[in-house]
Amino acid sequence: EVVLELARAVNPKPLNGKQVLLTAGPTFEAIDPVRGITNRSSGKMGYALAQAAWLMGANVNLVSGPTALPAPYGARMFNVQSARQMHAAVFNQIEQIDLFLGVAAVADYGIKNPSTQKQKKQNAEPAGLHMEFELNPDILAEVGKLASERSQPLTVVGFAAETENLDEYAQQKLMNKKAHFIVGNLAQDALGADLTELTVYSKTSKPERL
Amino acid sequence: EVVLELARAVNPKPLNGKQVLLTAGPTFEAIDPVRGITNRSSGKMGYALAQAAWLMGANVNLVSGPTALPAPYGARMFNVQSARQMHAAVFNQIEQIDLFLGVAAVADYGIKNPSTQKQKKQNAEPAGLHMEFELNPDILAEVGKLASERSQPLTVVGFAAETENLDEYAQQKLMNKKAHFIVGNLAQDALGADLTELTVYSKTSKPERL
Asked: Which residue ranges form the domains of chain A, and what is each CATH number?
């Protein structure tokens, strides 16, 4: 931590005093008290970006789904499970935010009525066979809409992890979510990995591979 | 590791030379390349028992679902995702095993035809709404059956994490799975925790709270 404090002290601080909000990791949509639907996101990218933002001088707020990672040094943590909880944690503080990075892999659908007791196999119906799904709020699209409407500037960066048609899906996301940037990668290479190939999409310039 | 080697050297070794097989952690049943159904098991209990068995002189084989834990020192690791993979890893080696501890939280049901590409929200059908479930093999019951039939002794220990009716469910499990012991705990207290209250059930003696 002393090393990080030192690194921050000597680092140029392009984000000095800026309020940065990130989401990271997977969400966990409960089926019953023990089971749930999640995804393979490890949270590494979001946590690394949170640490980098802090080193660049930002005040960093990190809304994180369940991960096995240590909190980035200097970041204020908000630990959540479901997409709805993540949405609430984001909109509790979005008014003060200058830069939003939606890195979390947020579930599109939640489970309508999670069971309050663990579902047993000997019950006639297999656990989850009658799961009803409900659409979760689209956090990135709502933040993008807010940014397009409010007077105080808010830069919105989304992430797209796809298994195919990355360029097409990322360009769509740029438009549909009113994001300033979409950072895309191929999920089969990236999920859980320490290194990954990224492409940055924006409305005003050509896709840039990093 | 030197400390562990030393501890093992001076430890009494009731399991000296025994072949012990454990399963630990959750399983992950893929819906598509990024999403899946899992549970809140951290793997801590299975990993701790694997380490303890090694300290007691056993040869330890650990079949583990996805966890964030370091491999127990001295254990041979078999990393798997789904219940079917866990089943295969167990039955690949069960012939040589003297003691089986089924600690993993194994999914009762798998997804019949996981999508090979990430399912997109803009498709008319929400991801997973048409998931078809199929019954997974019951690893503990199959090991219990094998133990009851084969001549070479095989001790079978199962685990039950329940949210209610623990005594009843654990006694049922003892009978249905032909296990020698069932170790029960309440999931709401136990999952992810470092300490938990356990009860040991066996056919021949009264439940014993630890």
From this structure: 2-209 (3.40.50.10300)
